[in-house]
């Protein structure tokens, strides 16, 4: 089994291969991670792993606030994640390749990365200034009838987009072409749908492309039917994702 050790960046969201990830880095543990990545030669990939948080907080408590102004403040790479790091994170994540790491005058960073490869989380190390993880790269098998399933998913996704645009009273941009390669299409649809983190995580860790597409087809039909019955979706994001204390 081939494994790799990379810096670990936990988020309250799921990153899929091929998708762009913009990051605003202000916590010291992640600033240290970016400073380390900048040591990588420019002609080599600056890679880190992104995993979705199962139990914990994306941003550590660094000052008293709601709901408990007396809560103990946390420091270090594990702040906000509890004592058992393997239980705090979902087991399947995605490697990110940072094409742009720009340090601001105040020491914070603006980062633009792209998801590349799915990985399985084997262990987490917290002895340094930021978390690192031993990871096993996961292959993407097409499965049975992936091509036909992709065609059905893309048709349903277009209907979903139209219904969603209508419910939000927004115009739909139709100029963009959707990819017809099954694996790429499955990741794009998974990332674009309004789904909660556990559902997106389920799609990420699907055993093969066909299984992911079958799941997406069911979700698209269900979500489109729900949107059809609603007059509008004024605050859909508030009902679909976790709240951020910021």
UniProtKB/TrEMBL annotation:
<dbReference type="Pfam" id="PF02190">
    <property type="entry name" value="LON_substr_bdg"/>
</dbReference>
<feature type="domain" description="Lon N-terminal">
    <location>
        <begin position="6"/>
        <end position="224"/>
    </location>
</feature>
<protein>
    <submittedName>
        <fullName>LON peptidase substrate-binding domain-containing protein</fullName>
    </submittedName>
</protein>
<dbReference type="InterPro" id="IPR003111">
    <property type="entry name" value="Lon_prtase_N"/>
</dbReference>
<dbReference type="InterPro" id="IPR015947">
    <property type="entry name" value="PUA-like_sf"/>
</dbReference>
<dbReference type="InterPro" id="IPR046336">
    <property type="entry name" value="Lon_prtase_N_sf"/>
</dbReference>
């Amino acid at each position: 089994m081939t494994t790799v050790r990379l810096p670990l960046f936990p988020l309250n969201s799921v990153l899929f291969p091929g998708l762009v990830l913009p990051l605003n880095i202000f916590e010291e543990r992640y600033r240290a991670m970016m400073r380390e990545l900048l040591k990588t030669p420019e002609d080599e990939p600056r890679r880190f792993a992104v995993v979705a948080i199962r139990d914990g907080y994306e941003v550590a408590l660094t000052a008293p606030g709601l709901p408990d102004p007396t809560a103990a403040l946390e420091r270090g790479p594990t702040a906000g994640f509890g004592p058992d790091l393997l239980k705090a994170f979902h087991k399947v994540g995605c490697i990110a390749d940072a094409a742009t790491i720009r340090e601001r005058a105040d020491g914070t960073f603006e980062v633009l990365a792209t998801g590349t490869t799915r990985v399985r989380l084997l262990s987490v190390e917290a002895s340094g200034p930021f978390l690192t993880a031993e990871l096993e790269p996961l292959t993407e098998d097409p499965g049975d009838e992936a091509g036909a399933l992709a065609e059905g998913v893309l048709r349903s996704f277009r209907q979903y987009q139209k219904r969603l645009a209508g419910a939000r009273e927004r115009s739909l941009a139709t100029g963009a072409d959707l990819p017809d390669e099954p694996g790429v299409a499955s990741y794009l649809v998974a990332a674009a749908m309004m789904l909660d983190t556990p559902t997106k995580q389920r799609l990420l860790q699907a055993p093969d492309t066909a299984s992911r597409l079958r799941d997406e087809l069911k979700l698209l039909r269900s979500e489109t039917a729900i949107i059809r019955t609603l007059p509008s979706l004024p605050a859909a994001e508030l009902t679909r994702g976790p709240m951020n204390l910021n």
